[in-house]
Amino acid sequence: MKKLISIALVLVLVLGALAGCGKTEPGTTATPSADTGANATAPAAGGTIKIGLLGCYTGEYAQYGLAVQNGALMYIDKVNAAGGINGKQIEPIIYDDKGDPTEAVTAFNRMLDDGVTALLGSVLSGATMAVVPEAYAANLPMITASATAAGVTYNEDEDLVYTNMFRTCFIDPFQGEKMAQYAKDILGARTAAAITETGNDYAVGLKEAFVAKCAELGIEVVADEGYSKGDKDFKSQLTNINAKGADVIFCPNYYEDDALIVTQARQLGITATFMGGDGWAKVSEYAKAEDLEGSVYCSAYAPGSTPEIKQFETDYAAKYNGEVPGMFAALGYDAAIVLLDAIKAAESKGLETGSDEYKAAVIDGMKNTSSVGITSAYSYDEFNNPIKSAVIIKLEGGKEVFSQMF
Amino acid sequence: MIKQARDIPTPVKYLINLALFIIFLVVVNSMIASKTISGYYTKVIMLIGINIILAVSLNLATGYLGQLPLGHAGFMAVGAYSSAIFMKAASALPMFIALPLGLMIGGTVAGIFGFIIGIPALRLRGDYLAIITLGFGEIIRVILLNIDSVLGFNLTYGAASLKNIPKTTTFLGTFICVFIVCYVIHTMMKSRHGRAILSIRENEIAAESCGIKTTYYKTMAFVMSAFFAGVAGSLYAGYLGILNPSNFGFMKSIEILVMVVLGGMGSMIGSVISATVLTALPELLRAFADYRMVAYSLLLIAVMIFKPSGLMGTYDFSLSRLLGKGLSRLPARNASPARKGDDR
């Protein structure tokens, strides 16, 4: 009996695996959770343009992935509702990579099998960097809304720019440099300190750029402290910083840590101004207003600052049960705008959808884009990074308010 | 006349296996070359190969030696990083020299780490060994993460990931490694050394009293296990092209252990099957989107409830035994089918 059951189990495992094989046609790829209802009425194959959406839609960083996905799908649905591009509907093919580079590579190859024309993703830098060389080899147009590492578009070992790869977010060094400049010009800082999570590529990238720029601007970095992921007590690092007495403290980590660091610093009597990167968004929900007062961070997105953004916020809330969009949703929306504009340009040239010339035309369209997204107008530098100015957000009375463009 | 498996001379048995394996390689490789197997499935197959090596090598320490090391991902990481650093530096060397050399370096460095860790760790048993190897695995990960900023040079690039590693891993390379690893472990387990390792699993005190140098054999099995994990790591580095210490955390070790336990501890074919299924399953369940991880875990639970010893228990597949079974049925059944001593 036991033997029978175990044989049955083996069979189930194997059959389950094989059954998966048969069901992998693109038609099933619209995930139940995603609001792709608009695509159900899409015309038959041949009349669609397939776009891959790759990102961490489950797992530790799912909130970022889902925000990007929501933003991108919102624009795609909008275009589809308006009749698509050149009469063709956009068909999003959504795969989850859990933020894992290994899964990202297999999922990406799956997309190639499904015949995607372009890829919007991935969400995290590590997963994106694993995919880019393969997409480059296939010359597949690719845009990410949130992979900020410099290495995403540029291979420094071989001095090679991945010409097919674009993004709508800042790169890490850019934010660090901007904040150093801001410390010098606006805050008039003469000394600075930094505290970063050492295992975090994003935080380290920002910090290194900040320190380098400080040296260039003549700001003395008196302390450069690190901590490990999951640390909750930062008193020893902060005591060091306090002893050295810095004018500003650069703290470019994720918001939970930042909130704890600011709170503990105030307890130790540190009065220096705290500065951060776009990971600070929503920090006001995690620390007291008086502790945060006067801190600044840079972001790509200023909520409620322009009529377009207000419109976006209203539409987003209407589509996603009253959710308030953050920076990731806005950048996902922008990425979809830049990509679909380029596809429009390629379509208008009368090329065959999905052909190599078509893909080259889409890449060309993105490179010379003049798209206007909701966070900024876009144009790309020689490394395919967007040229746009940063938004400085200031903490005032427990609220994150738009201070200035910088 | 050949009527049973044991009548077939051993070299012939190995030759049959080798021939079948070469046929498998040629067929699949030509299918890949002709694009009958798409790029996606090739990737999954390569990943399966890498995971087979990991599972089979851990099976050596867990299934055969009977210890419970939880730091296998650490050895994989060491192998992956050392081979990746070598491959990046040796881009001038021709591929047929650089690739095997890279794999050997990955394996050797991991083996050295296995030796360093094995000496103190193997003095402990059971839970304590699990915890100390877990600790060592984490130490390796944290070192890889921080060594650059502490010592002030660029070697592993820490959290920024080691990027642009030459993508040298191919289907052929992976499965030749799979074959060699399985062959070496199989033959070793049939040899005097293998019997010694098994005796330690069954009863360490009895083994020691029979004059088996338990420390020596434990360390040997452990180092071998680490060596092969390093080889798998090297293949992984060449497969992915980017390495980050966070990919080699505690969960990776558990993932490999799950493969071994699910397949049956002490069964090589079990490790191979479960590594294959557990790698392919999440990919093939993509059609179920959000529910795929739930389906995956439910299958694990079901197997563990109905077959706690793993899918294959300690059964090991033997082609020649199968062949012998067939042979003994063909002619008149005068030769009794008793071959009980011929397991494993």
Write the layout of secondary structure elements.
The complex is a heterodimer of chains A (406) and B (344).
Chain A: H1 2-22, E1 48-55, H2 62-81, E2 89-96, H3 101-114, E3 118-120, H4 125-137, E4 142-144, E5 154-155, E6 160-161, E7 165-167, H5 172-185, E8 191-197, H6 201-217, E9 220-227, H7 235-244, E10 248-250, H8 255-267, E11 273-276, H9 289-292, E12 296-299, H10 307-319, H11 327-348, H12 356-367, E13 391-396, E14 399-405
Parallel strand pairs in A: 1-2, 1-3, 3-4, 4-7, 8-9, 8-10, 10-11, 11-12
Antiparallel strand pairs in A: 5-6, 12-13, 13-14
Helix pairs in contact in A: 2-11, 3-4, 5-6, 11-12
Chain B: H1 10-33, H2 39-64, H3 72-89, H4 95-121, H5 126-151, H6 171-190, H7 192-202, H8 204-209, H9 214-240, H10 250-263, H11 268-284, H12 292-306, H13 319-329
Helix pairs in contact in B: 2-6, 2-9, 2-10, 2-11, 3-4, 3-5, 3-9, 4-9, 6-7, 6-9, 7-9, 10-11
Structure, explained:
The complex is a heterodimer of chains A (406) and B (344). With 406 residues, chain A is of the alpha/beta class. Chain A has two domains: 46-170 and 309-367, Response regulator (Rossmann fold); 172-299 and 390-405, Response regulator (Rossmann fold), CATH 3.40.50. Chain A contains twelve helices and 14 strands. Chain A has a seven-stranded mixed beta sheet with strand order 9-8-10-11-12-13-14, sandwiched between helices. Chain A has a five-stranded parallel beta sheet with strand order 2-1-3-4-7, sandwiched between helices. Chain A has a two-stranded antiparallel sheet with strand order 5-6. In chain A, strand 3 (118-120), helix 4 and strand 4 form a beta-alpha-beta unit. Chain A is globular and about 65 Å long. Mean pLDDT of chain A is 85; it is low at 16-45. Chain B has 344 residues and is mainly α. Chain B has a domain at 45-254. Chain B has 13 helices and no strands. Chain B is globular, with a radius of gyration of 21 Å. The two termini of chain B are 24 Å apart. Classes of the chains: A alpha/beta (406), B mainly alpha (344). Chains A and B meet through helix 1, strand 2, helix 3, helix 4 and helix 6 of A and helix 2, helix 5, helix 11 and helix 12 of B.
